[in-house]
Amino acid sequence: MNEKEYDNLLRIKTAGTLELLSQSAHYNRYEATPYEALDELFKTYELHQSDGFVDFGCGKARVSFYVHHRFGASVTGIEMNGQLYQDALENLARYRRKAKHRGGAIRFERCFAEMYEIDPSENTFYFFNPFSIQIFMTVISNILLSVEREARPIDVILYYPTAEYVQYMDNQTPFKLWKEIKIVSLYDKNENERFLIYRLDE
Question: What angle do CA 107, 111, 114 make, to 5 degrees?
């Protein structure tokens, strides 16, 4: 399926990019993860209905809806931009008409990522370069503090990872690179077209 067909299947609207008119240089523009990439990721990476998935910088929430539709996991999308948050809520209203009573909860919070309080039920965290390395470090630190309070395995999924994100995860955290998934059809043109999955075991 192409992008439009996938959006129609989920009854959402997530295409395009949006330059954020933010006074902070720490937040990047909105751009949705390609459905083609998500299909590739989830060929070999499984989620379960018992998982708690957090999409940081969710934008219009394509990844959130895709994960909820495919796995029935509980999903939380975090977005600080008011327009994108509103778009996510409008998508949620349309999606719920199609997916009543399916799987876990799906919700969105409008807040800065570094201010979001990690819930003990959340164990999978997704990032498509939504913000600067400084904010990313704070968010990872918050995740680790949550694990100290409630021990559990944690996965961090990076799409199109920057060198700064990778160096930080490799050298300054207890996470270990568990899997690399290349987007085969796109990787030859751009080596950043990949997912890195970092795992922290109990």
Answer: 115
Element (H, E) at 60: none
What's the burial of 97, exposed, middle or buried (CB within 10 Å: 0-12/13-18/19+)? exposed
Q: What share of the chain is helix, strand, coil (3-state, %, to 5)?
A: 40, 25, 40
pLDDT digits (tens, 9 = 90+) for 19-37: 444 445 555 567 889 999 9
**Does residue 16 have a pLDDT over 70?**
no
Q: Cα(169)–Cα(24) distance, rounded to whole angstroms?
A: 24
Crossing angle of helices 82-98 and 62-71, in 10° steps, is 30
Cβ atoms of residues 127 and 158 within 8 Å = yes
Rounded distance between C-alpha atoms, residue 81 and residue 74, angstroms: 22
